[in-house]
Amino acid sequence: MNRKWLILPLLIMILGCSEKSPEEVQPNIVVIYLDDLGYGDVSAYGATELETPNIDNLANGGVKFTNGYASSATCTPSRYALLTGEYPWRNEDANILPGTAPLLIDTAQSTLPKMLKSQGYQTGIVGKWHLGLGNGNVDWNTTIAPGPNEVGFDYSFIMAATQDRVPTVYIENGNVVRLEKDDPISVDYQNNFEGEPTGKDNPEMLKMKWHHGHNSSIVNGIPRIGYMKGGESAKWVDENMADTFLLRAQQYVKRHKDEPFFLYYAMQQPHVPRTPHPRFVGTSGMGPRGDVIVEADWCIGQFVKTLEEEDLLENTLIVFSSDNGPVLNDGYYDDAVEKLGDHKPRGPLRGGKYSLFEAGTRVPFITYWKGHINPQTSDALVSQMDLFNSLAALVGGEKQGPDSKNFLNVFLGQSDQGREHLILEATSRTALRKGDWIMIPPYNGPAVNELVDIELGNSESYQLYNLREDIGQQNNLAKEKPEKLKEMLKLFEEIRGT
Ligand code: NG6
Ligand code: CA
């Protein structure tokens, strides 16, 4: 639909001359999605040692959710849920994927970008993908498909998996950027290529040391997960990644300013390896992890400024969140632990990335739409999975997310009645949140992942916490409240079908 037809209903709404419902407007939609940013990493969410003024502007000018969740405590499943509106535990392959994994989303599946496309939106992704590419045997030297362009994105500029996994190249609409024909790329997650150095065997070549994992191919002095050969001219410069994604996101906005667009701006910070641009080095006093959060915040400020300069800010709904909770040492020696000081990445919550405790999945979650949302803090229980059907309600699309719920009025700050319940996931284990309560069934496995120093939520006994009274999950009420436990277990089994 042409933009000029959209302005009229908007004007009517604003002037209050008619009872036009929001269903009839088509604002641009931007999802800004960080990687491993914790509930306590944002000053608007209580961080005192770190300043995030640009994220704070969104939080203070929109709805700041205090009970907003990623579906999972790791990246791939959370991104799967965000884009499909389906619980990732329904898909047994929705685990942290290697860079060679096939596309996880079926090309026949409904997706958020497809739904928006059907309503006339231009759709784009810039940043981290990590949902697999191709059919299982990718040739990185030809157009790679299926990928984001086959599940609903008109435009894609992505890294395939994570910053710490090969191939360390950008892929634009299926083609590796700056690849030279006489230096083809090969990738293997099992075996090294003959004569290629590795983090394990060539420590003298490293500018960042590995702590666990991350000892395969070396790119830019950083040891990675997986082996890669060739593609020299195509390899990204880690320190420029934030600027690269920002520029692509800004260009996307400028290209599509005259039509409704959806941009999924999937930033890489503060996932490892943390490689701030030199102009951000030392800005946080917390080492690279803090510095890349400052860098990410700056990027968000620049991005919002572009929307403003293009006169789009009042016609753009911005959603801000993170794919999972925080981790300090995620496999490199990068001073994240040593220089943390008094900063609390998980805020008042327990656990972190990989954990079934709250800090694994409860993340900063903000909706911002200048002139359309009354600034407020909302305690409503919402999941990123709910964006699918809620945005469908906004633009008049089909609500096809199987587990997604329409909470458009909650996301627009017109109601605080969110979900009654939500299943949370951490590396294939699940727990049930219902009202103020969380029930974690018994799981085998270590209580703590010693390598990353995070409590995982595993216990031989049932755990039951009242999150309103005990946000830090210190007081297990499973024995004291058998009726509550029974009620939770019944619903959990109903939903999980066990
Ligand atoms: C883990 C990696 C970790 C990170 C994570 C994925 C090791 C030892 N650890 O397997 O560094 O890459 O996968 O993170 O390899 S996520 O945010 O994309 O889920
Ligand atoms: Ca992540």
Describe the structure.
The structure is a single chain. The protein is of the alpha+beta class. It folds into two domains: 28-180 and 233-420, Alkaline Phosphatase, subunit A (3-Layer(aba) Sandwich), CATH 3.40.720; 423-496, Arylsulfatase, C-terminal domain. The chain is built from nine helices and 22 strands. The strands form six sheets. It has a ten-stranded mixed β-sheet, with helices on both faces. α5 (241-255) runs parallel beside α6 (288-309). The longest helix has 22 residues, at 288-309. The radius of gyration is 22 Å and the shape is globular. It starts with a helix and ends with a helix. The relative contact order is 0.17. Mean pLDDT is 95; it is low at 14-23. Bound molecules: 2-acetamido-2-deoxy-6-O-sulfo-beta-D-galactopyranose (NG6) and calcium ion. Calcium ion (CA) is lined by residues 35-36, 75, 271, 323-324.
Major sheet details:
10 strands, mixed
Mean pLDDT: 95
Quaternary structure: single chain
> What fraction strand?
15-25%
Ligand catalogue: 2-acetamido-2-deoxy-6-O-sulfo-beta-D-galactopyranose, calcium ion
| Unreliable spans | 14-23
Topology of this structure?
Layout: H1 3-15, E1 28-34, H2 53-61, E2 63-69, H3 75-84, H4 112-118, E3 122-128, E4 155-159, E5 170-172, E6 175-176, E7 186-188, E8 209-210, E9 218-219, E10 222-223, E11 227-229, H5 241-255, E12 261-266, H6 288-309, E13 316-322, E14 332-333, E15 365-368, E16 376-383, H7 387-395, H8 408-411, E17 421-426, E18 429-434, E19 437-440, E20 448-449, E21 454-455, E22 463-466, H9 482-496
The structure holds 2-acetamido-2-deoxy-6-O-sulfo-beta-D-galactopyranose and calcium ion.
2-acetamido-2-deoxy-6-O-sulfo-beta-D-galactopyranose is lined by residues 35-36, 74-75, 96, 130, 162, 164, 212-214, 225, 271-272, 324, 330-331.
Family: Belongs to the sulfatase family.
Pfam families: Sulfatase
GO molecular function: hydrolase activity
